[in-house]
Amino acid sequence: MTTFNMEDHSHRRFNPLTGDWILVSPHRAKRPWQGQVEKMQETQRPAYDPACYLCPGNERAGGLKNLDYTGTFVFTNDFSALLADAPDGHDGDGDLFRAESERGICKVICFSPRHDLTIPEMELADIRRVVDVWQHEYTELGNKDFINYVQIFENKGSIMGCSNPHPHGQIWASSLIPNEPQKEAVRQGEYFATHGRTLLSDYLARERALTTRLLVENEHFTALAPYWATWPFEAMIISRRPTAHIGLMNDAEKTALADIYRRLTILYDNLFEVSFPYSAGIHQAPTDGHEHPEWHFHLHFYPPLLRSATVKKFMVGYEMLANPQRDITPETAAARLRALPTVHYRQR
């Protein structure tokens, strides 16, 4: 009888942060590939674009004018998905039709005045300023009595729905805790109640002992391909100290966060020698006025590219109707990323 092997045989993996399962089919990654493998022809962008609504001094789509900023620049989204003055209310009929109002604030963070840069091409000191903005906005927004969760995220690349290539991220602060952080809150709370330690502290200790899925590390953070990863080159950044949120981080930790964010995204860009698209975001404690010792600061990176700069993974069929599935294992993905140069391909 054949002995089960995780690198050869289909299996399910459990995500302890959400309680979800993913189907892994490593044997499918061994089939011949006859599709696209070409590199994408990249467009060289100018350092300043007079038509860009995020560049310094330019007029935005809503009619307001940007400051002539030289570092980071934050403003309230002109077309916010959440509104601070939304009135309280609800609608529905019994258990089957339910709706309720949602208040919130949406902001845009321009990472740099340079239109032609992205995080992996920025200087460490400039990325550190972005981290400072994250900390400031998390604290300021979280102190508002109607804000209970602050979601900080970045969409990079048009393939991820990013409407403007200027380096920027977003913050959506809401009165209710969104679905994904809420699932993680429940699972982390259960684990902490049972073990007296954060779930990600124990998980990170095991990953660092095994090393097979580690990508890059520094004194305060580890980047790795999670055991339960769904996307081909999915990654997490986890704080070494079980910090509940970015507001508790000291100067050394903030610099280290900027450093590992840059190093991970350089690996991404070097994989297919393209400005690598992804959605990335911070998961951290709610701002509901309660202590959250169960929460452990981390970031998720969800990049869609699969085999080349132009071939992406889609969530279709079984993945939409049953549960997510992947072919390349997280261990294989981690090995490929670890083997890449640490200097950005445009600088070599």
Question: What does the model show?
Answer:
- The chain is an alpha+beta fold and 348 residues long.
- It has one domain (46-347): 2-Layer Sandwich (HIT family, subunit A).
- It has helices spanning 124-142, 179-195, 199-210, 251-272, 318-321, 330-338, and strands at 11-14, 21-24, 73-76, 90-93, 97-100, 104-110, 149-156, 168-174, 214-217, 221-224, 235-239, 278-283, 298-302, 325-326.
- A 9-stranded antiparallel sheet has the order 3-6-8-7-12-13-11-10-9, sandwiched between helices. Strands 1-2-14 form a 3-stranded mixed sheet, with no helix packed on it.
- Helix 1 (124-142) crosses helix 4 (251-272).
- 36% of the residues are buried.
- Mean pLDDT is 93; it is low at 32-37.
